[in-house]
């Protein structure tokens, strides 16, 4: 009897001991918890400081960096959307009749327009309207000849100095990649073209510059160029200033990324094929593993 009680006590104390060790072993875990809390609090403080800094910084630099352009639902902005090619065609007309007076488009050749916005015959006829220097001929002379589809878009000015001299010292940038070169892309260019307003009270704009809140600094050497009815569209679309801005921005977005439509088509094909292959491999894996996973091992 006594010995049984003794053994029970011994068992109990062993149990207590093991409980103690269990609690003892959980202690470091509690310490880890408070460590995590400290990390979270530190991260929170750093994050809040960064946000405050960014916000204060952004509002302080609004005039320096220009107004943030509103974003528009471009017909080509979705993952499966292609360019509106009728709009590219109208945009080319706006570029040719308005912007090309000052801006070059160095990376686009006439042939790039074929089957994008114009037919081959139209492109040939348009290129022929411009004279290009070629040569030397058999006598070593350079000569002028009409343009060919392989020629690049003619320049607005012969050199940078001439461009600056004609534009109050400012250089009109090449527009080939402008939608990629500016924060906001076509939204920015659209906002810039349609955003001319009178300078607010207290803001002085130097002679030869124009006030535009979307341009960093607010004073731009380019005057407003798009007014209702500046061009006459052949397809009868009313040529309002915003319509022309939209079309020329679509054209410039195409110029900066002529492979855009093809890229999205490739992306769609790649996604469809990859999803198919993944589904197939999941099926195949299950098929091959099924006998192993459903097998029952019985020991006797
Ligand atoms: C009369 C000449 C002239 C015409 C026409 C003109 N621009 Fe400009 N453009 C300029 C000049 C000059 C600048 C440089 C402005 C500056 O740096 O202050 C400029 C700058 C720009 C910029 C760059 C702004 C930036 O963020 O640096 C864009 C985009 C632009 N023009 C688009 C166009 C488009 C599109 C058209 C046609 C609808 C057009 N421009 C017509 C002279 C012109």
TrEMBL record:
Alphabetical list of InterPro entries matching this protein: Cyt_c-like_dom, Cyt_c-like_dom_sf, Cyt_c1, Cyt_c1_TM_anchor_C
Class of this enzyme: translocase
Catalytic activity, EC: 7.1.1.8
Single GO BP term: mitochondrial electron transport, ubiquinol to cytochrome c
A cellular component annotation (GO) from this entry: mitochondrial inner membrane
Main location: mitochondrion
Stretches assigned to the Cytochrome c domain: 86-238
Compartments where located: Mitochondrion inner membrane
Residues reported in the UniProt entry to bind heme c: 99, 102-103, 222
Spans annotated as Disordered: 1-30
Any single Pfam family the record assigns to this protein: Cytochrom_C1
Sorted UniProt keywords: Electron transport, Heme, Iron, Membrane, Metal-binding, Mitochondrion, Mitochondrion inner membrane, Respiratory chain, Transmembrane, Transmembrane helix, Transport
Biased composition (Polar residues): 1-24
Cofactor(s) the record lists: heme c
Highest taxon above the source species: Eukaryota
A GO molecular-function annotation: heme binding
Reactions accelerated catalytically: a quinol + 2 Fe(III)-[cytochrome c](out) = a quinone + 2 Fe(II)-[cytochrome c](out) + 2 H(+)(out)
Note describing how the cofactor binds: Binds 1 heme c group covalently per subunit.
Similarity comment text for this entry: Belongs to the cytochrome c family.
Entry protein name: quinol--cytochrome-c reductase
Taxon lineage: Eukaryota, Fungi, Fungi incertae sedis, Mucoromycota, Mucoromycotina
């Amino acid at each position: 009897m006594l010995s049984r009680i003794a053994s029970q006590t011994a068992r109990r104390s062993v149990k207590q001991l093991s409980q103690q060790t269990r609690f003892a072993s959980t202690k470091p875990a509690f310490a880890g918890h408070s460590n995590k809390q400290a990390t979270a609090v530190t991260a929170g403080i750093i994050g809040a400081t960064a946000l405050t800094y960014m916000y204060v910084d952004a509002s302080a630099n609004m005039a320096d960096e220009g107004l943030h352009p509103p974003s528009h639902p471009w017909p080509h902005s979705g993952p499966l959307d292609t360019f509106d090619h009728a709009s590219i065609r109208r945009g080319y007309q706006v570029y040719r009749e308005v912007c090309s007076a000052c801006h070059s488009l160095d990376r686009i050749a006439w042939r790039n327009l074929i089957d994008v916005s114009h037919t081959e015959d139209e492109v040939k006829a348009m290129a022929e309207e411009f004279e290009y220097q070629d040569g030397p001929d058999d006598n070593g002379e350079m000569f002028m000849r009409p343009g060919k589809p392989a020629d690049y878009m003619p320049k607005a000015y012969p050199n940078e100095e001439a461009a600056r001299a004609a534009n109050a010292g400012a250089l009109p940038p090449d527009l080939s990649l402008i939608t990629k070169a500016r924060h906001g892309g076509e939204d920015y260019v659209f906002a810039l073209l349609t955003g001319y307003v009178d300078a607010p009270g207290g803001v002085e704009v130097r002679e030869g510059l124009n006030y535009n809140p979307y341009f960093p600094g607010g004073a731009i050497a380019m005057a407003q160029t798009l007014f209702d009815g500046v061009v006459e569209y052949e397809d009868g679309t009313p040529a309002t200033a915003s319509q022309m801005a939209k079309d020329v921005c679509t054209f410039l977005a195409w110029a900066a990324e002529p492979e855009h439509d093809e890229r999205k088509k490739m992306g769609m094909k790649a996604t469809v094929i990859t999803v198919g292959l993944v589904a197939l491999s999941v099926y195949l894996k299950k098929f091959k593993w099924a006998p192993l996973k459903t097998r029952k091992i019985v020991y006797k």
